[in-house]
Design goal:
InterPro entries: Methyltransf_11 (IPR013216), SAM-dependent_MTases_sf (IPR029063), Thiol_S-MT (IPR052356), UbiE/COQ5_MeTrFase_CS (IPR023576). Keywords: Methyltransferase, S-adenosyl-L-methionine, Transferase, Ubiquinone. This protein has 199 residues and is α/β, with parallel strands linked by helices. The protein has a single domain, classed as Rossmann fold (3-Layer(aba) Sandwich), CATH 3.40.50. It is built from seven helices and seven strands. A seven-stranded mixed sheet has the order 3-2-1-4-5-7-6. Helix 5 links the parallel strand 4 and strand 5. The radius of gyration is 16 Å and the shape is globular. The termini are far apart.
Length: 199
Amino acid sequence: MGFREKYAELGERYERIDGPLERFFDPLRRKASRFVAGRVLEIGVGTGFMLPYYPEDIELHTIDAVPEMLEVAKKKAKELGLNASFYVMDAERLEFPDESFDTVLSTFVFCTVPNPENAMKEIHRVLKPGGRAIFLEHTKSDCRLLNWLFLKPLDVLLGFLLEDNTLRETHLLARNYFEIEHEESHYRGIVRLLVGRKV
């Protein structure tokens, strides 16, 4: 069973599982939302954790590979009075023309994408020159001990449950495609916020 099937089975229950972590992620989501502008694409919207934080003056488009998660996000957007477009789509095969967006945002998605390199190429492709790519992601820590004592066991558990990989180095991959303007490391690098620009 792949990540799509596992997340599909969770549906609305995903928020009850991930919800307790939101008190740690909430300030970082708020901070990430301050960098968005113009025509915005959110990769992997999931159940819509980011939706409450978007500014009103953007044109928001969102994708997710799991229809069941997307339905939850649609309901949340309606409750918030948010005007957004939702598409069932794979991050590795974005069905948008080149240079379509001013901002592309990804929050806690690259730990799940089967081929992160392909997804990064697609983000770069659909972003306009000078546009921003924003990543708020789980990453491998700078502390080896933390990786072995915490992230490695968590990686085994989440890999089994959700096909998540908590030891990815998305912060390094992003540097191959974007000029990094802003970077923050939180919880010893377990979570990072990066803002890159397409040059």
